[in-house]
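Field reference: sequence -> structure
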Amino acid sequence: MSILQIFVPESGLGENCDWALRDAASVSTGTSTCAAVPQADQIHLIVAASRVLLTHINLPAVSQGKLREMLAFAVEDKLLVEPDKIHVVAAARALGGETAVAIIDKAWLRQQISHLQQQGIRCDQALAETLLPRLESNAWSMVWNGQGGFVRSGPSAGFAVDGGDERTPPMGLKLALDEARASKTSPNRILIYHTNGTRAPDWSDSLNLDIELRGTWDWRSAESGGTSTLNLLQGEFAPPSKGQAWLKHLRPALMLLGLIVGVHLLATLADWARLRQQQKQLQSEMIATFKQTFPAATAIVDPALQMRRNLSALQRAHGAPVSTDLLPLLAVSAPVIRLAKIQTLQYAQDKLQLELVVRDAAELDVLREQLRTIPLSAVIGPTQPLPSGIKVQLGLGMDLAPRE
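Structure field:
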């Protein structure tokens, strides 16, 4: 996995970015415009030590969600700023002890992240430079620039210092050592890294402990992976999950798809409304025609059906045969009922009621298919197995229920 580190100086990011690209085999470094930094699997910000305050506080046993809400208020007594102006993250809570926290100006951090986002850079972590120097047993690691620097005093602990010279250590370093000695946690030695062009200091006598020189410091030479749990990009600054990022890339396509579905739905509703209006118009025309033909009729429920029945009644009244008479019904149904043996036949109220016997289920299926080819309504009743075949109840007519 490749990791791109981008350094954020105390003054904040400008047009150019100092970066280091790491993978399993090599490390490459450079300075370029922020928009032209290399691509990587993860992007880590290295924030100048002077911008991040590291401290320890006692925290109550509350849920993670409530802990994030109260962190800024929990460190209020250590700062002279309002809680809503700072961003605070906590390391894993220590058992029976204090919890390490990192504090940074919220507006400043938001400005740096926004600047990178405008260049198309989405960061995964933001770490304090304070926590980059390597730790060794019973030692503190210090980066000295000739006028100050910073000290890493623990896995998630450290502080920035100002002042001092080659002979005189910074006052902040002396005070921190006095406090550590009082709590019996002081180091036996200090490992000094100095920046380019800076002479290494000699503070052994002033601090009354060993000073070991470890060469020139360059943040690019320090690995950020797994350095500390104090990732500044938590809470409101947490990067989106992979699923959210993937969804964000799909948002234009999803919006277009939603627009297409919406247009199609509107077109479908419009077509349904048009057909519904046509149906009402045809129904009104049929009712008007029925009333004009049979003005004495009062209850009109199904004008098409009532028209057929009234016309059939008129034809019978004048001695003319109609399609629902016995002989027309037999003539139309003859191609079907000839496939079976007729046991009984009844005719009443313009309908034929038949009991048929077919030889087997296959012949019954053929009978069902043939019923679909004749212009009659058909109802197939319960079947009954017989030694000679299958008995079938069959109703035929013009106005029966839908055929099975």
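Note: The first helix runs from residue 64 to 74.
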